[in-house]
Structure formats: C-alpha cells, structure tokens
Amino acid sequence: MIAHRMATSGVAATVANLVRDLPPLIILSWGGGLLLAAGKVDVSIAGVATLCGIIFAILTQCLNATSVPALLISSIAGVLLGGCIGVANGYLVARRRAPPLLATWAVGTIAFSIAGAVAAFANKQGMLGSTASITLPGLIPVFSHTAKEFYFSLFAVAVVAVTVLVFRLGWLARLLGSNEAGAVYSGFFTERVLLLLFATSGAIAALAGCLFAIGTWTSSTTMHAGKEMIALAIAVLGGTVMSGGYFSLIGISISALFWLLLTYLFTGTSTGMGVEDGRILSAAFAGLIIVVCYTLGRSLSGEFRTIHSADETNPTR
C-alpha cells in the first residue's frame, strides 16, 4: 500500500518539495557551518534571510517581472544587504570582542523587526501581499513547475560552492577554529578572517532568503523563525564541530538532504503518504541507523586505535 501511494503521488511530491526546499536550506547551513568551523556562531541568519527576502520580493514587484535578469538583480541587492549585516556582526565580534551568540542574536532580532516594518509599509503602498508578507509577481506560485526558477536555484548553489572553494573559506574557518591563539601568535589576521566569514554568512543567508521566497512565491516575516537552529543542527550533523576546526560542503549537503527526507516522512504531507505510514518508514530508517551505529560505530566516528610495539596484536582504545 505504501509503495503504491509513493508510486502514484509520493515520489513526485517529494521531488517537487526537495527542488523547492533543499537548495536554500543547504546554502543557509553552509553559512552557519562556516562560523561554527571558526569556533563562533551566527544565529542572525534567520533574521537576515527574512529581511533580505522581503527586500527581494519588493524589488521583484517594482521591476514587475519574474525573468531571470530581474531575479538576478533583486538577488544581488539582497545579498549586498546581507553582506553588510554580516560585516556588522563581524565588527561586534572581531573588533569589539562581543560574545558571538549575544551579538548575532541581537542583530537578527533587529533584522526581524525591520522586516516587519518594511512589509507593513509596502502593504500600505499597495504592494501585493499583507502586512506580514510580500508576494512575488506571477500567476502560478509553484516552484517545481517553472524551469527558470529551478535552474536559477541550482546556479545560486553552484556560485556559493565555487566561492567557498576558490577563496578557501572553509580552510580559513578550520584554521581559525582549530587553534585561534596559535593563529594570532603566528601573525594570522584573525580579525580580517572573522569579518570575511561573518560577511559571507550574512550574504549566504540573504541568498537563501531570496531562494525561499522564489520557492513559495512569497516572502513572509515569520516563515524563517527558528531556521537558524535547523541550519546549525544540519551543519553539526554534517560533521562540523561546534568548537571549531572542521567544515565540509558535501557533508552538510548530505545532512540537509537527510533532514528534509526524514521531515517529509515523519509528517507524511510532502510524500503523498499518510502520517502513520510516514512515521513507520521513518522509524524503520532510524532503526537501521541504530544497527549501523552499533556494528560500525568506531569506524563511523573516526576513532583511532594505537598499537603497542611490544604486542601488535593487542589493540587499545
């Protein structure tokens, strides 16, 4: 019965939702993971995504078009704004030595508030939407049915990945997070690196907000609340250590995919299956993971074994 439901509607529904939700979630998690790899944290990314998503939606209405050039121009404006907010975060943390959690939380909260004020003002000016959301211009608000938005999303993911790799942002974050004191004493410009990483995180969060808006054809002032915790959790599941020193684009991407798939299975609403069927499948999958962890736990965790020279057959932990 489950297989029949998935064959008729579940697979198509799941693929459509993955196409819509996965790219921005991956990008948002990459941004959060970069700061975790540096031993810092950025919880403003949800507020930045909300504010820049609102600005993006307003600009698309002003341009009165959903063509790729219009989307690109609106996205660039949102990314620049997000980068500026990230620089403000970096200044507070790197230059003023403010606690990252408190500083970025405050900046994110202000971004949420500004987004609400901007949306309400735009609504009073007659723009499509409500006092809490702005609607993108278009007739069919279905992301997976419009090819140009799909390709635009893939292009955005590719641009972020290439940027992180070319400018070696992951390497810089790992270097800073693994031994910040050593980096300082060796002449490493830690303040500049933190400013760069926070600016990148803000720009990435802004781009994710734009992609979320494209996916739902609207940008809301409430839809991203709590997404910063999800992005950070995905980054940790992808292998990023909260104390710093590790970052992987591929690992975070795979974690985001698993996160969405398990979410779809558990709710049942995005797979065309019933809620109980989805929970049964998710529980079976979780049981399989437990078996794998029990049998291959040491291999999966990367635990090292040492061999005593006196007795090479006696491995110890």
How are the SSEs placed, and which strands pair?
Layout: H1 2-37, H2 45-63, H3 68-95, H4 100-124, E1 129-130, E2 133-135, H5 147-166, H6 169-178, H7 180-185, H8 190-216, E3 218-220, H9 227-237, H10 249-267, H11 275-301, E4 306-308, E5 311-316
Helix pairs in contact: 1-5, 1-6, 1-8, 1-9, 1-10, 2-3, 2-4, 2-8, 3-4, 3-8, 5-8, 6-8, 9-10, 10-11
Give an account of the 3D structure.
This protein is mainly α and 317 residues long. The chain has one domain (18-249). 72% of the residues lie in helices and 5% in strands. It has eleven helices and five strands. It has helices at 2-37, 45-63, 68-95, 100-124, 147-166, 169-178, 180-185, 190-216, 227-237, 249-267, 275-301, and strands at 129-130, 133-135, 218-220, 306-308, 311-316. The protein has a three-stranded antiparallel beta sheet with strand order 1-2-3. The protein has a two-stranded antiparallel sheet with strand order 4-5. The protein is globular, with a radius of gyration of 22 Å. The N and C termini lie far apart (47 Å). Residues 1-8, 139-145 and 301-317 have low confidence and may be disordered.
